Amino acid sequence: MKKLFIGILCFLMASLILLVPATAYGQEIPEEHLKIQILEKGEIAKFNGFLFSVPLVVKMKVEKDFMQKKFAEDIRYEVEKTVAEWQARLEKNTIEHEALIKKLQAENVILNEQVDFCHEKLEQELKEDEKWYKSPYFVGIVGFLAGAGLTVAVIYAVNQ
After folding, report:
1. Vertex 62 angle, CA 56 and 64, to 5°
2. pLDDT of the chain along its 160 residues, tens only?
3. The whole model's pTM is what?
4. Whether 51 contacts 45, CB under 8 Å
């Protein structure tokens, strides 16, 4: 995921470098050097510079326009492709999230039903087990009376 983000960021930065013209502050070119002179075959130019034929200039302009349109279309395509990929990931994660929520809710309902069942079963067993002879008070009283009775019997037997 991090690599994808870095890749997209690098692509966008490279695209911006190509599309945004750089401002350069350098030596200004005097107006007298910015001339266009139409020359006939064999004529000598009155200034230094490059000489381009008309078909070459037209070809360069067409290529420049084509490349600008091509780069703009490539960038649009890449952006749309990236948006579509991220949209698909978002939809996939949303579906997975909703499915996980439904699964956990179903598990929660099952666990609550199990807890309720165990609670009811325990209450039912406690109600059934509340017999008078199984009470801890009854066992304590019987133990006390048995101990007292044995003590009295032992003292009586020793005195006889």
Report:
1. 100
2. 777 778 887 777 777 666 666 555 556 766 665 566 677 777 777 766 677 777 888 888 899 999 999 999 999 999 999 999 999 999 999 999 999 999 999 999 999 999 999 999 888 877 766 666 667 778 888 888 888 888 988 888 888 8
3. 0.40
4. yes
SS3 (DSSP) at 32? helix
Q: Taking a C-beta distance cutoff of 8 angstroms, is the pair 70, 77 a contact?
A: no
Residues 6+ apart with CB under 8 A from 30: none
Q: Which helix (DSSP H) or strand (DSSP E) does residue 158 occupy?
A: helix 136-159
Asked if 63 contacts 77 with a C-beta cutoff of 8 angstroms, the reply is no
Handedness of CA 78, 84, 89, 93 (dihedral sign): positive
- Per the document, the length of the chain is 160
